[in-house]
Amino acid sequence: MTRELNKAFCGFARPGVESENLSAVATGNWGCGAFGGDTRLKAVLQMMAAAEAERDLMYFTFGDVDLLRDVRRIHTHFTHRHASVGSVFNMLQQYYERVIKETSRAKPQETLYSFLSEHL
């Protein structure tokens, strides 16, 4: 996760340029095609990087209506809770420790977004 956050931040950051003079970052499901990445995790990581880089984000779901709905809901949840990037990162780490590491099957019972919504 740290590698993905750093990669996104480096792509989004524009040191020395006032954030009001920057356009939104247009992005999507990096590494989620042939590489099989988790679209919901990638969306959260890119939201976090954009927040740290003080950039607006346009996240394209490429016709995935369920992903669009889920990303909108989790973004609204973060916004209403005034969640910091650090608090979201801590919750991602807790999800890994509490859910992913304890799951012996390919798909965990609790989804990332349900965990974040409940614990953040």
Description:
The protein is mainly α and 120 residues long. It is 54% helix and 5% strand. It contains five helices and two strands. It has helices at 2-12, 39-52, 65-80, 85-100, 112-119, and strands at residues 25-27, 57-59. It has a two-stranded parallel ribbon. Strand 1, helix 2 and strand 2 (57-59) form a beta-alpha-beta unit. Helix 1 (2-12) crosses helix 2 (39-52) and helix 2 (39-52) crosses helix 3. The longest helix is centred in the middle third of the chain and has 16 residues, at 65-80. It is globular and about 45 Å long. The two termini are 18 Å apart. The model has no long low-confidence stretch (mean pLDDT 92).
Care to give the gist of this entry?
The chain has 120 residues and is mainly alpha-helical.
What keywords describe this structure?
120 residues; mainly alpha; 5 helices; 2 strands; 54% helix; globular
In total, the number of strands is 2
Biggest sheet character: 2 strands, parallel
* Mean model confidence by pLDDT: 92
Which parts are unreliable, with pLDDT below 50 for 5 consecutive residues or more?
Answer: none
Structural class: mainly alpha
Order of helices and strands: HEHEHHH
As laid out across the biggest beta sheet, the strand order is: 1-2
N/C terminus separation? 18 Å
Strand content is 5-15%
Tell me roughly what share of residues is in helical segments. 40-55%
Shape: globular
Structure annotation, total helices: 5
Radius of gyration: 14 Å
